[in-house]
Specification:
This protein has about 130 residues and is mostly helical. It has a domain of about 90 residues. Helices cover about 55% and strands about 0% of the residues. The chain is built from 5 helices and no strands. Helix 3 runs antiparallel to helix 4. The longest helix is centred in the middle third of the chain and has 24 residues. The model has no long low-confidence stretch (mean pLDDT about 90).
């Protein structure tokens, strides 16, 4: 799922879907962003795979849907709660893995235009971000 998310981030969100993703790279006052629409977009294949997987006697599609759901939960917890503090739970990140993810994500956010960018992953990022400077 990480590869799918990386691909979608780089080749969908930073190209033709930039209109919806751009506000995530800009300062804003409101709680919701147009970028939040992607949560719904990813929820649809998760739901459909789980539904059709259950209808077919719990075949592989159920587990694909569960995988997409679990990735989404990990994404919300890591990206929205820990890194961006969107729900106001101000805590200093102390765990080495979460610190590395935050460094990588903020390196990505220093770019404000759709053509710019680095580190499009969320849960798997280059090792250089885990090293302390």
């Amino acid at each position: 799922m990480e590869f799918v998310a990386w691909f979608a981030h780089k080749y969908v969100m930073h190209t033709f879907a930039w209109y919806f993703h751009e506000d995530h790279h800009q300062p804003h006052d409101g709680f919701f962003q147009k970028n939040d629409l992607f949560a719904l977009i990813f929820a649809i294949p998760s739901w459909l795979n789980m539904m059709f997987g259950i209808m077919a006697g719990c075949d592989f599609r159920l587990y694909i849907g569960i995988g997409i759901l679990l990735y989404g939960v990990a994404y919300v917890f890591t990206h929205e709660v820990i890194i961006h503090n969107r729900w106001g739970m101000k805590r200093k990140i102390k765990h080495w893995y979460l610190q590395g993810l935050a460094r990588a994500h903020f390196a990505h956010h220093k770019h404000k235009e759709k053509e710019d960018g680095e580190c499009f992953g969320m849960l798997v990022v280059p090792l250089k971000y885990f090293r302390k400077n």
